[in-house]
């Protein structure tokens, strides 16, 4: 079993807030595709990283998680490209962790 996490920024690359309706669309798409979803959206997570010029960049994020028996890499590549376009991002972080359900 895999736990797949999508780290979704609340603002586009220009610092403009993204519409809440966009996150509702993503939620609905993931629920339809995977049969369920956990969303961490009440208190945004904060992502920090250094750019090439050693400037620290910050993102406020919400995290969506889904569970899947296997990873369909072709589907995820297409979905990631779709999210990057809709959220106006250079890159969206999607990561998968192998988990054991107890």
Task: Summarize this structure briefly.
The chain is 28% helix and 39% strand. With 102 residues, it is an alpha+beta fold. The protein has a four-stranded antiparallel sheet, with helices on one face.
- The CA-CA distance between the termini, in Å, is 11 Å
**Content of β-strand:** 35-45%
The spatial strand order of the largest sheet comes to: 2-3-1-4
**Helix-strand makeup class:** alpha+beta
Total strands: the figure is: 4
Largest sheet: 4 strands, antiparallel
Shape, per Cα inertia axes: globular
Structural overview:
The chain is an alpha+beta fold and 102 residues long. The protein has helices at residues 20-34, 73-86, and strands at residues 2-9, 38-50, 56-68, 93-98. The protein contains two helices and four strands. Strands 2-3-1-4 form a four-stranded antiparallel β-sheet, with helices on one face. Strand 2 (38-50) and strand 3 form a beta hairpin. The N and C termini lie close together (11 Å).
Blueprint (SSEs and pairs):
Elements (H helix, E strand, L loop, with lengths): L1 E8 L10 H15 L3 E13 L5 E13 L4 H14 L6 E6 L4
Antiparallel strand pairs: 1-3, 1-4, 2-3
Key words describing this protein structure:
globular, 4 strands, 102 residues, alpha+beta, four-stranded antiparallel sheet, single chain
């Amino acid at each position: 079993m895999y736990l797949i996490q999508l780290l979704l920024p609340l603002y586009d690359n220009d610092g403009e807030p993204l519409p809440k309706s966009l996150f509702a669309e993503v939620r609905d798409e993931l629920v339809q595709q995977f049969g369920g979803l956990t969303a961490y959206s009440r208190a945004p997570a904060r992502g920090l990283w250094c750019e090439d010029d050693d400037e620290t960049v910050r993102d406020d994020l919400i995290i969506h998680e889904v569970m899947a028996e296997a990873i369909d890499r072709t589907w995820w590549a297409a979905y990631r490209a779709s999210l990057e376009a809709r959220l106006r991002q250079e890159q969206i972080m999607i990561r998968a962790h192998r988990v054991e359900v107890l």
